[in-house]
């Protein structure tokens, strides 16, 4: 296989339908006679359910049914990984509720307003029991237990080299407690599902990143053969990892549709979405980093406490923290422990980066703490400890095989674009003058894992009208898959990109697929599209050679078909090639009918994109206000096929990373009640609050796929958060501020300034 000829900017082919309002989301799918579902959700964080009385709701005109867990009998959702089944999640709570927002019952009515009004009339009697929302409190002796039968709130624990001393020989040891706060994903389209009974099965339209996973889990929960369940993900208005979960609401809606024999439609409100979609991050890293006086790193110890909320459905997140514990650096020894903790808060799942942003923030903050301790420029400390280019492929102490990289080149490019030396001079001048607005420059150098699950389905067929149809197992929710895959086909076959149709996200139209997560789609799905296109080209050459009486190697794509090299007037169109391919009598001997092929590529391992970000901020030392001035992102995702798509992913990633650093954070009160359950209290920045972003790239192709591509969808989120946090701390370092945890609200920053300069701020 060889890389496509076409590498360049191609505008997204899917955008016109979005811009013209022609896109179709779950709520746009017609379903005559569909009932509306409204969920009755827990108002308490931890309580026993003594009574659920649905009589008042059933008496409302237009209400068809009110169903509880006893009515549907759905099995509990098993926890992930090696977590004990005792921590499983019921589809509808029966005996105990464990977080505010947990569904208890569902009302089915003829319209949305009636369903919501009736849901208010379901009477739930609670017996409150003590709860805990802080993960450190959850592991303390005597903490309230969410699952008393287990005897602990630690659902799972990993320890690697924990009994060893990785800091032996260190001349300097620094320590940091780094918090990656709990985040709400806030996709533009909240969660939604529509279940339509069909014979002995059903079709489920759902806003998901993984339609095949939804099909498998719904079929299992309802006792149906998978062939009886069709799942379609239409246009999906953002996922960010939160739509990887197969939610209990999907199972309930599907079961209710079969139970009642009518279509059932459900869509979250925004306030529901803030509670019912899985949250992200929610990890505390305690890091000890040892070095010699010259800055050479000798070892690291990392202790992770991961809050997975009420149900540990994503314990795999901390395995990524272990895998990425050394970041972009040569650190010869690692000791690591992670504890998966349950708390009375919404479950935590994958969120853009999924277990890679947290260790990156931890090690990048600790690197800056070490630089301050050594009196060394943070850029220089990184230079001295990067894995050098000649070391690749590089085996880390945690068992990862970094495929390719040049970490120093990305850092130097970021510093050059930012004008680093000039910024440092301006910073020194402001400090000397005692300016109210102090300048901060933050650096972050990261490496991450992409390409999880090394196989993916893709096939390609050319039709008798000369168009091509690609079927892929990945599922798009904003990344531009339709453009990227069509671009590959156009490059290989010479068929115009607007004559290439991409089919995805429908289990009836595509036989299998893994879905979209972990920045895997182009490198694995795209490579299989490439392979399918090359196989089609190979077959078409043999057919055209037979027709034109030339050798196959003398033919190349030209003018909508294949033509003899050097004689473009002697050719065969793709339409004619497809017609010949469908007529066995016209085919050369040994060629099977049809002009189609399936990709058969399996990537031999994961890829490791990397990069460096530089954030430039001002901090008002009198108010604590953080002003985002500039952000430079240099991300290396291997070979770039379409810079329009890549840069779009970078801009979106920076927005989410900056949002974590400065604005966003889920908060609960001491009783577990959410304080950030809507967009009036949960701060999502608009374009007006975000800094100008300068995007640049280095390109270090991976040897693991013929495209040379690595992932890009999560990179900028991973790199941007620590850069901004480091910049704010850097702005205040001369005042004695050594560390801050996000979100960097004016109050938090102001209190840190007060504590450093004149003692603790008043409460």
Structure description:
The chain folds into three domains: 154 residues, Aldehyde Oxidoreductase, domain 4, CATH 3.30.365.10; 190 residues, Aldehyde Oxidoreductase, domain 3, CATH 3.90.1170.50; 234 residues, Aldehyde Oxidoreductase, domain 4, CATH 3.30.365.10. It is globular. The N terminus is likely disordered. The protein is built from 19 helices and 28 strands. The relative contact order is 0.12. Helix 6 crosses helix 7 and helix 14 packs parallel to helix 15. By secondary structure, the protein is an alpha+beta fold. The strands form seven sheets. A seven-stranded mixed sheet has the order 3-5-1-12-9-10-11. It has a five-stranded mixed sheet with strand order 7-15-14-13-8. Helix content is 28%, strand content 23%.
Question: Any descriptors?
Answer:
five-stranded mixed sheet; disordered N terminus; 3 domains; Aldehyde Oxidoreductase, domain 4; 28 strands; globular; 763 residues; alpha+beta; seven-stranded mixed sheet; Aldehyde Oxidoreductase, domain 3
Largest sheet: 7 strands, mixed
Structural class: alpha+beta
- Which strands sit side by side, in order, in the main sheet? 3-5-1-12-9-10-11
CATH superfamily of the largest domain: Aldehyde oxidase/xanthine dehydrogenase, molybdopterin binding domain
Strand coverage percent: 15-25%
Helix content: 25-40%
User: Which second-level CATH architecture of the largest domain applies?
Assistant: 2-Layer Sandwich
The fold-level CATH name of the largest domain is Aldehyde Oxidoreductase, domain 4
Measure the end-to-end span: 65 Å
Low-confidence stretches: 1-5
- Our count of domains comes out at 3
Q: What's the shape?
A: globular
CATH class of the largest domain: Alpha Beta
Let me know the average pLDDT: 96
| Count of distinct strands | 28
Whole-angstrom Rg? 28 Å
- Individual helix count: 19
């Amino acid at each position: 296989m060889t890389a496509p000829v076409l590498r360049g900017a191609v505008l997204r082919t899917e955008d016109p339908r979005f811009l013209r309002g022609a896109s179709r989301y779950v709520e746009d799918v017609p379903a005559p006679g569909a009932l509306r579902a409204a969920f009755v959700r827990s108002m308490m964080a931890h309580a026993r359910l003594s009574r659920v009385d649905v009589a008042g709701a059933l008496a409302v005109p237009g209400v068809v049914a009110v169903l509880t867990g006893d009515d549907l009998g759905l099995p509990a959702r098993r926890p992930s990984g090696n977590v004990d089944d005792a921590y499983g999640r019921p589809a509808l709570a029966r005996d105990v509720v464990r977080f505010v927002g947990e569904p208890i019952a569902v009302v089915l009515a003829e319209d949305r307003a009636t369903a919501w009004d009736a849901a208010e009339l379901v009477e739930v009697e609670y017996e409150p029991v003590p709860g805990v929302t802080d993960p450190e409190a959850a592991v303390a002796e005597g903490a309230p237990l969410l699952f008393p039968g287990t005897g602990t709130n630690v659902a799972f624990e990993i320890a690697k080299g924990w009994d060893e001393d990785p800091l032996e020989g260190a001349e300097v040891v620094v320590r940091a407690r780094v918090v990656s706060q709990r985040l709400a994903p806030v996709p533009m389209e909240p969660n939604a599902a529509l279940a339509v009974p069909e014979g002995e099965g059903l079709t489920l339209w759902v806003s998901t990143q993984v339609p095949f996973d939804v099909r498998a889990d719904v079929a299992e929960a309802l006792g149906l053969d998978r062939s009886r369940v069709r799942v379609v993900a239409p246009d999906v208005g953002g996922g960010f990892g939160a739509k990887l979960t197969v939610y209990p609401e999907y199972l309930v809606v599907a079961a209710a549709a079969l139970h009642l024999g009518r279509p059932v439609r459900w869509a979250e409100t925004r306030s529901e979405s803030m509670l019912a979609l899985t949250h992200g991050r929610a990890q505390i890293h305690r890091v000890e980093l040892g070095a010699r006086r010259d800055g050479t790193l000798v070892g690291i110890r990392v202790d992770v406490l991961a809050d997975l909320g009420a149900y540990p459905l994503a314990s795999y997140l901390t395995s990524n923290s272990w895998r990425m514990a050394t970041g972009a650096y040569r650190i010869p020894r690692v000791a690591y422990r992670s504890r998966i903790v349950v708390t009375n808060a919404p479950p935590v799942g994958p969120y853009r980066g999924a277990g890679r942003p947290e260790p990156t923030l931890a090690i990048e903050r600790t690197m800056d703490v070490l630089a301050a301790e050594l009196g060394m420029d943070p850029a220089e400390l990184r230079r001295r400890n990067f894995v050098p280019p000649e070391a690749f492929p590089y085996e880390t102490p945690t068992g990862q095989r970094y495929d390719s990289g040049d970490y120093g080149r990305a850092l130097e490019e970021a510093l050059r674009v930012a004008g680093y030396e000039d910024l440092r001079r301006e910073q020194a001048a402001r400090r000397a003058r005692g300016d109210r607005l102090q300048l901060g420059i933050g650096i972050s150098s990261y490496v991450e894992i992409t390409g999880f699950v090394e196989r993916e389905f893709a096939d390609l067929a050319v039709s008798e009208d000369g168009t091509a149809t690609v079927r892929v197992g990945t599922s798009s929710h904003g990344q531009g898959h339709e453009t990227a895959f069509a671009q590959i086909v156009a490059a290989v076959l010479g068929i115009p990109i607007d004559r290439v149709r991409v089919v995805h996200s429908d289990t009836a139209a595509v036989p299998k697929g893994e879905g979209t997560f972990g920045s895997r789609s182009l490198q694995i799905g795209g490579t299989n599209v490439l392979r399918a296109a090359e196989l089609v080209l190979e077959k078409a050459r043999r057919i055209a050679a037979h027709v034109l009486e030339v050798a196959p190697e003398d033919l190349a794509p030209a003018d909508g078909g294949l033509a003899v090299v050097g004689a473009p007037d002697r050719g065969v169109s793709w339409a004619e090639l497809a017609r010949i391919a469908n007529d066995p009598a016209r085919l050369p001997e040994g060629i099977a009918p049809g002009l189609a092929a399936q990709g058969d590529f399996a990537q031999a391992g994961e890829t490791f994109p990397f990069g460096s970000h530089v954030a430039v901020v001002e901090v008002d030392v009198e108010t604590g206000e953080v002003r985002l001035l500039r952000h430079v992102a240099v991300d290396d995702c291997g070979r770039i096929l379409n810079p329009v798509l890549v840069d779009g992913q970078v801009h979106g990633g920076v927005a989410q990373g900056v949002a974590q650093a400065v604005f966003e954070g889920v908060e609960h009160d001491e009783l577990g009640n959410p304080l950030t359950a809507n967009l009036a209290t949960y701060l999502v920045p608009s374009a007006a609050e975000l800094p100008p972003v300068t995007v640049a790239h280095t390109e270090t192709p991976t040897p693991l796929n013929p495209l040379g591509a690595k992932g890009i969808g999560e990179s900028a989120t991973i790199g941007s958060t620590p850069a901004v946090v480091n910049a704010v701390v850097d702005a205040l370092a001369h005042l004695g501020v050594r560390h801050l945890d996000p979100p960097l609200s004016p109050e938090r920053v102001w209190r840190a300034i007060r504590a450093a300069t004149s003692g603790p701020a008043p409460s």
